[in-house]
Write a structure and sequence with these properties.
Elements lengths: L1 E6 L6 H10 L8 H10 L4 E8 L6 E11 L8 E3 L12 E2 L4 H14 L6 E8 L3 H13 L4 E12 L9 H14 L4 E4 L4 H16 L2 H5 L7 H16 L3 E8 L2 E11 L2 E9 L8 H15 L5 E3 L7 H5 L3 E10 L6 H27 L12
Parallel strand pairs: 4-6, 11-12
Antiparallel strand pairs: 1-2, 2-3, 3-4, 3-5, 6-13, 7-12, 7-13, 8-9, 9-10, 10-11
Amino acid sequence: MISVTIDPPGLDVGPRWDDLVRRASSNVFMNPAALKAVSDTGFATILMMLAWEQGAEPRKLVGLWALQLRKTAPLLPAVLEALPYNYAFLSSPVVDPAFADEVIPAFFAAIESSAELPNVVSLKSFDAEYPSHAAMLKVFSLRGIEPLMVSETARPFVTREFGVKRSGSTRKKLRQDWNRLSSLGVVDVMNSRTPADVEQAFETFLAMEKASWKGEQGTALLSDSHDAAFVRRLLHNLAARRDASVALLRVDGAAIAAQVLMYCGSTAYTWKTAYDAKFSKYSPGALLVDRVTEELFAGPDIQAINSCAAEDSFMGQLWAGRRGMVDMLFDIGPRKSLGYRIEAGRLLGYERLRKLRNRLRQRLSPPRPKAALTAS
């Protein structure tokens, strides 16, 4: 038997969370420490669903799913957004695979039985290869739910066993870029998980990102004070648990690229990248991620790395591994509500506009600089 509680994100379930992620599919963005950063900064309105195995002593946490309560306009119905906050890149619940077929329907039942929550759920960046996805499809079939499939994509993803390109043109290019960069001075990588080091390196990342094209376009994290306050709290909370680090690629001690990493169970997440444009011809972001990948897999703890990136990103050139991802919308209720129909129209319209925008960018805009292997 599974019971589900709907709790505020500030609830301290740290030790039970640690126990769960040793057994469950990973999602660092569901970490209670991250959710508390959301709550403390007022960054989003979220709820935390906890699934418990009944009869276990002490009671055993077998699932956690954080959802954002979102309204696109004051008079429109609310929806539940499974990406719990902006800058989260995975919406899948963290579920013990031994209980997936019980936990997922229990989550749905908890949503449906709550008078305060809408029945419309939007899943973005949902891992189609997690057991929770298969369990969800079973629930859809049993309930007669027909989800709207908005998009299906692939995300660069690498494991110890598969995905790192060990030879070929990519490996040759990495060696050439490293050797050329080394001609400028002593090149090294620093990646400390000590909280003070993480926070100092994160400030380096923020400044580097602000000085990049993102700063020019107003999309850097420091371009918005609310966003900046949230991500600083987010990294502070995760670093306190040693669940975050910021790797720096340095030349003679000066950082030229930064990679923000997050950790959950045996999975690392390459969350955000920045680099000094003066060194773009050396592909600094790609060099840094390649070295960090090697470093993480040399240790005993990390078994996989999730890129948090699109397939056409530079990580798609570095890694051959892919992870299937889906975006979909569904209504848990007995029929598709007005809220569902409004949200479906919004998502489909947005998807069409996004594709049109990308086509126009390819035709009209010069390629923006990126820390890619093709940058030189």
